[in-house]
């Protein structure tokens, strides 16, 4: 029981009191309980007057969920601790004390408790599959078995940092077109529901036939006013159905991924991203001593696209039957000649992991450049789309005013 209490994730307490010289002092301290916090303060020569559990607002970073970048930072810090000669258990304590997120802190102390109880690090990670996937656990297991855990953690940290950076670039590339559509729809909806009806009341007093374009916009306005609530429900329901279908149906995901790869500009970014993720994962796992066939399993799961996942599994089957990696990759028809040639050179030279690392770096840079170019191209596109939508509505409203001379 005592061991369990010691390994429990500590709570932060804020305190006020007097130091050894009798001067007023305050601060914060980590302890498993209020009584333990007071005992620690007394050992430090502080006479506590008020000791209270630290509270956090619901919007503070303390309560935010754990993200992949948090795991990458934890891995990097643990690698640094071990390289500096700090024991694993002490490393958990040092890293946890610098973490703000309560969930991340709890994960670290859970890991410490399991390792302290005799479980190896890789086995302890299995209790947190949401944050530490099979690839992460397998690499840690390989590092522990080879006695080079600090080197493996450093390699995992680099891998996760690069993959997350790549994901962020892809999200950035996809956000711009979506933002254009959303802004255009919102502006148009506001004009149709709030502005056009004001003009319609003025038009009714003209006593003349309205232009066809104006009638069309007025008709759209009437539909928008009568059905806007239904439209929101339909859009929300469609979004929910889409997300569920994407989550549950592999064939639907494959159709979406295949269609995405055919999109202009965006499609090429997604192609390059999947190639980079494949090469980065394969380089990391193969360099860690994982057999090539098993490494391809990890690379397939990390590709981020069902089309590429299927192709990599095809590569795995080819390699399993004795094909070279270069031939198996080439037969999928998805990988560009440069990537297959660099893989061939790596196989011949016996430096496949180094060559795959170069392939990953090259295509990551390609994605980076394409996203920057997309940002430059999308700005005038935003202006053009908004100009057409807003300008079209404005022209439709002012056409009758321009034709007032026909009535007079």
From TrEMBL:
Keywords from the UniProt entry: Cell inner membrane, Cell membrane, Coiled coil, Membrane, Transmembrane, Transmembrane helix, Transport
Transmembrane segments annotated in the record for this chain: 173-193, 213-242, 382-402
Keyword 4Fe-4S found: no
Coiled-coil portions: 149-176
Localization (cell): Cell inner membrane
GO cellular component term, pick one: plasma membrane
Residue spans of biased composition, Polar residues class: 22-33
Record's bilayer topology term: Multi-pass membrane protein
One Gene Ontology biological process: protein secretion by the type II secretion system
Type II secretion system protein GspF domain ranges (all copies): 74-197, 278-400
Region (Disordered): 1-34
Family, per entry: Belongs to the GSP F family.
Name of the protein this chain belongs to: Type II secretion system F family protein
The organism of origin for this protein: Amphritea balenae
């Amino acid at each position: 029981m005592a061991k369990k209490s010691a390994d429990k994730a500590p709570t932060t307490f804020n305190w006020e009191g007097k130091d050894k010289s009798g001067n007023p002092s305050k601060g914060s301290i980590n302890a498993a309980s209020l009584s333990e916090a007071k005992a620690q303060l007394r050992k430090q020569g502080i006479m506590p007057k008020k000791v209270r559990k630290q509270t956090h607002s619901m919007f503070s970073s303390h309560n935010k969920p754990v993200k992949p970048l948090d795991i990458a930072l934890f891995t990097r810090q643990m690698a640094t601790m071990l390289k500096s000669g700090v024991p694993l258990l002490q490393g958990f304590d040092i890293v946890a004390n610098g973490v703000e997120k309560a969930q991340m802190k709890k994960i670290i102390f859970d890991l410490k408790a399991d390792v302290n109880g005799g479980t190896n690090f890789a086995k302890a990670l299995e209790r947190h599959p949401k944050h530490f996937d099979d690839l992460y656990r397998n690499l840690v297991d390989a590092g522990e078995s080879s006695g080079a855990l600090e080197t493996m953690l450093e390699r995992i940290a680099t891998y996760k940092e690069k993959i997350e950076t790549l994901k962020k670039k892809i999200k950035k590339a996809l956000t711009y077109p979506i933002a254009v559509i959303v802004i255009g729809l919102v502006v148009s909806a506001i004009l149709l529901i709030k502005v056009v009806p004001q003009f319609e009341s003025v038009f009714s007093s003209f006593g003349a036939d309205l232009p066809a374009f104006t009638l069309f916009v007025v008709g759209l306005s009437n539909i928008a006013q009568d059905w806007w609530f239904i439209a929101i429900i339909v859009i929300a329901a469609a979004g929910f159905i889409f997300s569920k279908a994407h989550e549950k149906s592999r064939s639907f995901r494959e159709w979406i991924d295949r269609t995405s790869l055919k999109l202009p500009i965006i499609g090429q970014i997604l192609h390059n991203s999947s190639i980079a993720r494949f090469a980065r994962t394969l380089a990391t796992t193969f360099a860690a001593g994982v057999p090539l066939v098993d490494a391809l399993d990890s690379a397939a799961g990390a590709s981020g696209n069902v089309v590429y996942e299927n192709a990599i599994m095809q590569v795995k089957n080819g390699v399993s039957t004795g094909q070279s990696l270069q031939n198996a990759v080439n037969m999928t028809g998805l990988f560009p000649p440069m990537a297959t040639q660099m893989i061939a050179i790596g196989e011949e030279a016996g430096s496949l992991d180094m060559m795959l690392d170069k392939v990953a770096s090259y295509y990551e840079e390609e994605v980076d450049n394409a996203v920057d170019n997309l940002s430059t191209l999308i700005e005038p596109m935003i202006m053009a789309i908004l100009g057409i939508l807003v300008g079209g509505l404005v022209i439709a409203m002012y056409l009758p005013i321009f034709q007032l001379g026909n009535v007079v």
